[in-house]
Amino acid sequence: NTGKLWGGRFAGGPSPELEALSRSTHFDWRLTPYDLAGSRAHANALHRSGLLTAADHTELLRGLDVLGERHAGGELHPDPSDEDVHGALERLLLEEVGVDIGGRLRAGRSRNDQIATLFKVFLRDHARVVAAQVLDLVDALAGQARAHLGGEDAEPTIMPGRTHLQHAQPVLLAHHLLAHAWPLLRDVDRLADWDARVAADSPYGSGALAGQSLGLDPTLVAAELGFSGSSANSIDGTSARDFVAELAFVTAQIGIDVSRLAEEVILWATKEFGFVTLHDSWSTGSSIMPQKKNPDIAELARGKAGRLIGNLAGLMATLKALPLAYNRDLQEDKEPVFDSVDTLEVLLPAFTGMIATLEFDGERMAELAPQGFSLATDVAEWLVRQNVPFRVAHEVAGACVRRCEELDVELADLSDEQFREISPELTPQVREVLTAGGSVASRDGRGGTAPVRVREQLDELVARAGGL
Ligand code: ARG
């Protein structure tokens, strides 16, 4: 016997080269508590089916508890000769309770249904952590939005809204920040959807691929591990990894959503924009340039989005055209998504800290908001309210911009006389929309940037976040 899980039909042990290639304990050892929980549930199922005496059952559970305690105490380690976490834990269990009892645990299960099941449990735990962290970021954005919404005696902060990165129309800073919060909220929604789908499908009981013949009840194991149901198809149960790819997608999307905000923070922190100052504790300096204050957190967020996309792409490439059922290729499913959750779990708290402590220069933003003729649409829409067809109004407002460019002034700098020359419809009343404040206040349809609507939007967001 080679001492392996599969020693019986082999005359000699594997070559060191094969062992080195095959070994996965350096990354799957972190599944130990999940493997032990699965084994505990499986021991219970064996006992219920009469395949394990009460005494053996008790002894097995004791052995598993001992391994759990040793692991928690940092005293449990795989051997270099262990292929994977399942093999290592079986070896250690046999050492603890002996072959006669320990050797009974493997009946009716395979590493194929084991790994598919406990990988799900592991990812569900981490998806919950990530979801809570994303909600913290949403909270930070909502907090900043609230702080800049104005109120009784304060004006709301207005900024240049952009399309094509060019000044487009003034918007409330709060409105813009919340535009980053909504996608994040949808990501949390996606995690919840994903979780419900995964919860319905515990693969334990699928065996290697064809199911088990020992009369075990897979719903017992499923319930004990927090699932609501077990796999309807044992081949699917052991070979499907769309749950991994789907989570890798959601984590990549979170990375992408965070990177879009990151990019803006990087721009906003430049001298040219001058919109934000980063808090000292959430920014870094330069080893040579004493004046530097760098947005490293935002840059790392932008960079890590690429890594998260890479994890998804690599995983999908592994899964593409893989025949049913289990293939060893599937061992490649773990590292990318482990990396994705680990990456987000360190990135998100730092990113949230940076956002929560950003100091916005409201005056600078307000000063720039009406520049670049960003009120031209307001002129056109004001004309429409005076019953001018929009086509004509657009032309007239465009003529105003042309005149301003000739004179090198902004729209509000045109005199009553100059407005009248452009069009008799342009009475001095047009000035009521020629301020950024007037402009944002006028956009009061649902979802618009008027302070009254943005206040409603913030309430809606907070209520939605609370329900997740
Ligand atoms: N370590 C493997 C994996 O992560 C599970 C073991 C299945 N191995 C096997 N030869 N059937 O996918």
Automatic annotation (TrEMBL):
InterPro entries assigned: Arg_succ_lyase_C (IPR029419), Argininosuccinate_lyase (IPR009049), Fumarase/histidase_N (IPR024083), Fumarate_lyase_CS (IPR020557), Fumarate_lyase_fam (IPR000362), Fumarate_lyase_N (IPR022761), L-Aspartase-like (IPR008948)
Domain Fumarate lyase N-terminal: 12-310
The UniProt record lists the keyword Manganese: no
EC number: 4.3.2.1
All residue ranges annotated as the Argininosuccinate lyase C-terminal domain in the record: 373-441
One GO BP annotation of this record: L-arginine biosynthetic process via ornithine
Gene Ontology CC: one annotated term: cytosol
Cell compartments where the protein resides: Cytoplasm
GO molecular function, one term: argininosuccinate lyase activity
Coiled coil regions in record: none
Pathway the protein acts in: Amino-acid biosynthesis; L-arginine biosynthesis; L-arginine from L-ornithine and carbamoyl phosphate: step 3/3
PANTHER family: ARGININOSUCCINATE LYASE
Name assigned to this protein: Argininosuccinate lyase
Gene this protein is translated from: argH
